[in-house]
Amino acid sequence: MKNLIIGQSGGPTSVMNSSLYGAVMEAFNQDEIGNIYGMENGIQGLLKGKIIDIVDKIFFGGGNLELLMTTPGAYLGTSKYKLSDDFNHPDYEKIFKILEEYEIGYFLYIGGNHSMDTVEKLNRYAKMHDIDVIFVGIPKTIDNNMIETDHVPGYGSAAKYIANTVREIVTDACVYDVSSVTIVELMGRMSGWLTATSALARKFKGDNPALIYLPEAVFDPEEFLKDVERCFEDKTQVVVCVSEGIHDKDGKLISEYGGEAEYDILGQRLISGCAKYLEKLVKERFHVKTRAIEMNVPQRCSVSMMSKTDQQEAVMCGTYATKLAIRRMTGKVVSLVRVMEDPYLASCGMENVEDVANQSKRFPVEWISENGCDVTEDFLKYITPLIQGYIVFPMSNEGIPTFLYR
Amino acid sequence: MKNLIIGQSGGPTSVMNSSLYGAVMEAFNQDEIGNIYGMENGIQGLLKGKIIDIVDKIFFGGGNLELLMTTPGAYLGTSKYKLSDDFNHPDYEKIFKILEEYEIGYFLYIGGNHSMDTVEKLNRYAKMHDIDVIFVGIPKTIDNNMIETDHVPGYGSAAKYIANTVREIVTDACVYDVSSVTIVELMGRMSGWLTATSALARKFKGDNPALIYLPEAVFDPEEFLKDVERCFEDKTQVVVCVSEGIHDKDGKLISEYGGEAEYDILGQRLISGCAKYLEKLVKERFHVKTRAIEMNVPQRCSVSMMSKTDQQEAVMCGTYATKLAIRRMTGKVVSLVRVMEDPYLASCGMENVEDVANQSKRFPVEWISENGCDVTEDFLKYITPLIQGYIVFPMSNEGIPTFLYR
């Protein structure tokens, strides 16, 4: 009887621990599976031999596994480590030696497009070397940019958080009887999936946010100022939502208009700051109260607005991955299929990981309104079911939610 | 039979509409009170004759008054308008003419230290001119800086939001096995009441946030870097919480270290940005992944983490204000008195508005730990009861909370 190992990879979401919960619970209930291990910090930790005995640690360690479903982030920790394209790289031998040592027969990996690259490579290597390990990917990202799936677990909760928080920001922006522009910057380097959800914040037709700009459309600062001016015709307070990755017709990021491109210590270009630049632009043109708000990391790690639909689908994807593993479906990634529209129903499907890895799905251009500063009804129909349902979460004595931690 | 008018003033909170609800419901049930009016945008709107018939608008207008209790911001709108110190200013005659026209006998005003200045002046003017109107203030602020009260409605919910969000940010900061410093900037120009609540985010002793800095202590950038270095001895990820108003021993704001002081269009000095400056400082010194997060307006307008205790006390203060008004207690402001510690119990008291107006209560220095970068157990004992209890709020069809709006 072989053991199962599971890892988490890439940026956190509100529900990636729900997928971990689903996969582990299903494995625990399957006679075909021996012990259940977790990699600390994904493949990077595995390479260092940092492996947790989940059964021992949580089931028998006094932990409450159910808490995973209301704990954001990554219980096991993640990494962004990319395996070499060269199969002669020592990483591969090292990884499979450790898998052999722990008698692993099933390898599950929760992650997005880049993490699926790891699943694909390990699966290919195993096949080439006739190693009997099953590899299955579990989809995860707030960005909703994986292909071959209707949507991705993590997106619904991020969408709900953004919709709710923008509605609150609008309420805040409207308390004074003073003309103002509030610019909310949302995550999304290449794609406007997250920013588009701010349209859900409207309480009635014509409500704020009045303007929504995604990276899938060209952003023209002069047109933007005209859009704002038009909004002032029937609004005192104008709230604008922008993706961090909006850019002009030449592809230059608006965040770079304010000065030189900045880089983080890993050499990755920092892309945030467009709201700050637009704030300056608006203030100079209209001389009104202006505020830039960068929503920042809470949009990917808040559980306060977790979508029950999203949580349940995340659990379902984890459960399904274990089921596929037992049925020896290797090199696969779980997908979500929208089976019915009204009432909404989704079920799990299965795709080849080599089709999904390293791909990216952009926001459909036909869901951007003609004027380029809004989204269409069709998008609202798509997103609304994904944010339904509400979670009441366990509170600690201090009055704030209890999180499970290693 | 005289009518009642109520207004909201100053910055929004999560529960200032709960106080409105309490005051209006009590007034509706009192035979001594005729109609109930609301000022749009406080005293500024009143001066323009912008008055809403609340009974007509909400009770009989199909609105659901209960929704006020889960709607953040200010249903009536607020203003920061300051009445003149000179009673010959035309504003006074104008205001009392309008009050006479609407046959107002009771004037309730929900606000903080500066808004109580309005209550105090109007009350004094009425007494001088023998005008029969009762003036009562209802306390409100996220800053908890009003004197003569144990705490202020609005603070508990802001505290709960901060504690929860910082806990989430810590979870997010810890997903990668990479050294990092995350600096969270919280509201508080003069006082650390809000920033102090981030200590509640810790899941265990020694957990992040590892460092907490308030404006009540002098901030020394070099000492700060030493504090961070010490944290790295037993932590891979360090989360720091700072008030926007931290300053050096000469009183210079840390936010101004990065460049010139900025001003908004009303000439008010912009005080945010210290986290951005500290991010630069840390990156240069430690060459680690560094992120500045400005929590921004959600800390004062989010309902997702509303404290039930705070909400109920806000309702109670509103209710009590109407009761005081009927009992002809003019020139008063409602206070909260902590009657019992364990189990916690608070009741309403009454203070003279001239004692409270324009005063400000700072965070007690004895609640700052000796090393200057943490808060004491005594503060945690004080704050913990104020964030207890959880609200399940009504959701719209779109899956996000329903707000009541004018």
Summary tags:
4-stranded parallel β-sheet; 406 residues; alpha/beta; 7-stranded mixed β-sheet; 13 helices; homodimer
Radius of gyration of chain A from CA coordinates:
22 Å
Q: In terms of quaternary structure, what is this?
A: homodimer
Structural class of chain A: alpha/beta
Order of helices and strands of chain A: EHEHEHHEHEHEHEHEEEHEHHEEHH
% residues in beta strands of chain A: 15-25%
Poorly predicted runs of chain A are none
Shape of chain A: elongated
Mean pLDDT of chain A: 95
Distance between the termini of chain A: 27 Å
Strand order, sheet with most strands of chain A:
3-2-1-4-5-12-13
Number of strands of chain A: 13
Tally of individual helices of chain A: 13
Q: What is the share of helical residues of chain A?
A: 25-40%
**In this structure, how is the largest beta sheet of chain A organized?**
7 strands, mixed
Protein chain pair with the most extensive contact, residues per chain: A-B, 68 and 68 residues
